[in-house]
Design brief:
By secondary structure, this protein is an alpha+beta fold. The protein is 50% helix and 10% strand.
């Protein structure tokens, strides 16, 4: 009897393993926990989408074992380079649809229900709470509605003096460093943090302690988040809380919250609320708007903290990355730098307005091409909360949609010789027939970046100030660039340049 039962169990296990291995399309579903993907028209799944090669019978579940941040970044690049199309990965408890083509992204963006951020954003909740970046449903819609007026294009005129002033301070601080090797990661973030705090939050960093400490803390938080994402066991909160780096993460998040809380408290002390004395049609900066809405009962104190944490993190780190790579690429291409300098020299003056900056059309193309090759946020994701149709696929609940902006921007269909740095890709004649989702440095759809006009103006002001005062010389070679997986695009080596003072 016992032998009979053992034989029966063994037969079942062997049959189970056989089905997993032999069924190319749906073998993974025999693992029981993985959401099923099928086609709309009933055809074979492998005819509709590329299915990744399994590492083991557990498909891709253990692919990340012993990966460092650099290997984790290159993992997806390897699939994109091999498959040349969007593809599926299968893990023990999740299916991941990886989008690397604009046409497939359009299918995702057509679905109004696909606005819930993916699992990686859940990891950020200790840091950012449930704010605009991480929330979903009605809460997200309400927060978006509250915050949108703070980023209206017309409000940028109020901040132009701050952009000019901080850019001017930055180039003056570079004077004693001219001729020396300069690490961009060490000098750019301070300026972008100054700008976001003074313009959007209404506080000068000279009035706040621990600004340098905040930037270091952000790096530690990001490192802990990426460490967690490389171990699938840590995706389960109860395992992470007991056996992961939860305690260390909470400690670092507390440090970051102390910095932003100081900003909120200082602004609240001097804030009068109401209409600011100039009528209800006045457009307030972000923090002012939040404090008004708090008085009106539309958001509570915790909500104010969530949005300030979100804006401070995203507003300085993504922009600093954009500035760094634009300056770096100008150093790599002296001919392009000369054209941009000549334009800056003829346009930039001491009384620049938003309209004046819009005349820097070649510089704008340079920035756009830099953002194409090196998007500050290289990857975003969505969680499928209910069965959803995406093109010819039907994705089950709890599936993940990974949108690889880094790879979408390198599609040779829209960018011939995609690794070549060519600002003329963004001449009107070259963009008029380009797919609208082939260029998405600020994401796309309903959850696109709310502050993209703010960011572009900031990039122009800083880069133009550097170009007007210095010639950028290369030190680090572009071919030596390597990257680490992270919330923001991070080079794993220093971006080093030299600056040569231009003649007055």
């Amino acid at each position: 009897m016992i032998l009979y039962l053992l034989a029966l169990v063994s037969s079942f296990i062997l049959f189970w393993i056989y089905k997993i291995i032999s069924d190319e399309d749906q073998g993974f579903t025999y693992l029981l926990l993985c959401p099923k993907t099928r086609t709309v028209d009933g055809t074979k799944l492998s005819d509709a989408v590329r299915i990744s090669k399994p590492g083991t019978i557990f498909r891709n579940t253990f692919d990340f074992v012993n990966f460092n941040a650099e290997k984790l970044f290159n993992y997806s690049r390897g699939f994109a380079n091999e498959y040349k199309c969007s593809y599926l990965l299968h893990f023990l408890v999740a299916t991941s649809y990886n989008v690397i083509r604009a046409e497939d992204l359009e299918d995702v963006m057509k679905e109004p229900d696909l606005i819930t951020k993916g699992v990686y954003y859940h990891f950020l909740e200790d840091f950012l709470g449930s704010g605009l970046l991480t929330s979903a449903g009605n809460k997200w819609h309400n927060r978006r509605k509250l915050l949108t007026p703070s980023f209206h294009f017309t409000i940028l005129e109020r901040f132009i003096d701050i952009f000019r002033s901080e850019s001017g301070k930055f180039v003056k601080d570079l004077v004693p460093l001219a001729g020396e090797q300069l690490v961009l990661q060490e000098v750019i973030p301070k300026t972008t943090l100054n700008i976001i705090c003074e313009s959007a939050l209404g506080i000068k960093l000279s009035e706040v302690d621990s600004a340098d400490f905040y930037r270091k803390t952000i790096k530690k938080i990001e490192h802990l988040e990426m460490e967690r994402s490389g171990n699938f066991l840590m995706y389960f909160d109860f395992i992470y809380n007991w056996f992961g780096t939860k305690t260390e993460l909470v400690k670092e998040c507390s440090k970051a919250h102390t910095f932003t809380s100081e900003i909120i408290n200082k602004r609240r002390e001097g804030f009068q609320g109401g209409d600011g004395g100039v009528g209800r049609k006045k457009r307030f900066a972000l923090l002012d708007n939040l404090l008004i809405h708090e008085k009106e009962g539309l958001i509570d104190g915790q909500g104010v903290c969530e949005e300030v944490d979100t804006l401070t993190f995203e507003g300085f780190d993504t922009t600093s990355t954009g500035v760094m790579f634009t300056i770096f690429m100008l150093g790599q291409h002296q001919d392009i730098q000369q054209l941009a300098f000549e334009e800056v020299k003829s346009v930039v003056n001491e009384n620049m307005t938003v309209s004046n900056y819009s005349n820097l059309q070649y510089l704008e193309r340079v920035i756009k091409e830099s953002l194409r090759l090196y998007p500050p946020v290289p990857y975003v994701s969505r969680e499928v909360v209910k069965e959803s149709k995406v093109g010819n696929l039907i994705l089950g609940p709890k599936s993940d949609i990974s949108i690889h902006i880094f790879d979408i921007h390198r599609d040779p269909k829209y960018y011939p010789d995609p690794e070549r740095f060519d600002p003329d890709r963004f001449l009107p004649i070259n963009t008029e027939n380009r797919h609208p989702f082939a260029y998405i440095p600020f994401s796309a759809g309903l959850r696109n970046c709310i502050g993209q006009k703010f960011a572009m103006l900031e990039l122009k002001s800083i880069v133009a100030a550097v170009l007007k005062n210095y010639k950028i010389l290369p030190v680090t070679k572009r071919e030596d660039l390597r990257f680490e997986a992270g919330l923001i695009l991070r080079p794993s080596i220093d971006l080093v340049i030299k600056l040569e003072k231009r003649a007055d």
